[in-house]
Design brief:
The protein is α/β, with parallel strands linked by helices. The protein has a single domain, classed as Rossmann fold, CATH 3.40.50. The protein has a seven-stranded mixed β-sheet with strand order 6-5-4-7-8-10-9, sandwiched between helices. Strands 1-2-3 form a three-stranded antiparallel β-sheet, with no helix packed on it. The termini are far apart. It is built from eight helices and ten strands.
């Protein structure tokens, strides 16, 4: 392996070196800018895919819920689910509570200011754990994965999706260009930074194994996303 600028070569394969970004997006301006980005299509696909392996009913934990767009969509499609969304950004949660209230779902969605690496919940508490585009914010996802393994029921389901880190800068440039002109300069840079902070599929498999989640399947599910999933015993 040798290093060169922000690239490294491993087994003859050039890989973009991982560049960390802040774990928490907590200023009001950053939170509003993120919430203004139109993730409707991506979020809808995430929710629909998660539902296919989720339980018919039960308690669901959304790690890194952000502005709670995903819990709102899930609650609208699965009235049998009670959903807890957690995040380390108070401003994100403030916006999220507005979305929950506007959707009149405060009786089925609760939002909590918590660290996914140190959850206060009892062992085997949740029937289903989901997380979208959070893992790339973590310098080391293993503690988070270990907490997932702890709070998830033995028969519970898991659905985690995030960006993958491209093999080279040309692919980064192509993916950034593909989002078009709907995003301003700051939003475009956020996307580029997230791609460069993400993990490869091989890295995620190793990290899940370290956390004891070696029964979770991981694969590429788009030109920019990987998905880790395990169906619960009553998943379909």
């Amino acid at each position: 392996m040798f290093l060169q600028k922000n690239l490294y070569v491993l087994c003859g394969k050039t890989i973009v070196k991982r560049i960390l970004e802040p774990e928490v997006m907590d200023t009001w301006e950053e939170s509003v800018a993120y919430d203004a980005m139109d993730f409707t299509e991506v979020n809808t696909v995430f929710v629909e895919d998660a539902i296919t392996i989720g339980p018919e009913s039960g308690l669901v934990l959304d790690l890194g819920t952000g502005t709670a767009r995903i819990p709102v969509l899930m609650a609208q499609r699965k009235p049998q689910w009670q959903i807890v969304g957690i995040d380390l950004s108070q401003n994100m949660l403030k916006l999220g509570q507005q979305h929950v209230n506007n959707a009149e779902l405060s009786d089925r969605i609760s939002l909590e200011y918590l660290d996914a690496k140190q959850l206060p919940y009892d062992d085997n508490s949740f029937d289903f754990v989901v997380s979208n585009s959070v893992v790339h914010h973590l310098s080391d996802p293993v503690p988070c994965f270990q907490e997932i393994a702890r709070v998830l029921k033995p028969s519970g389901g898991l659905f985690v999706r995030d960006l993958y880190r491209p093999e080279n800068e040309a692919i980064v440039d192509r993916l950034v260009a593909s989002i078009g002109s709907d995003y301003d300069t700051h939003q475009t840079q956020l996307f580029r930074d997230s791609l460069c902070a993400a993990f490869t599929v091989e890295e995620i498999i190793e990290l899940l194994n370290q956390a004891g989640l070696n029964d979770v399947s991981v694969k590429m599910t788009s030109d920019r996303h990987w998905t880790a999933q395990r169906a619960g015993c009553n998943g379909r």
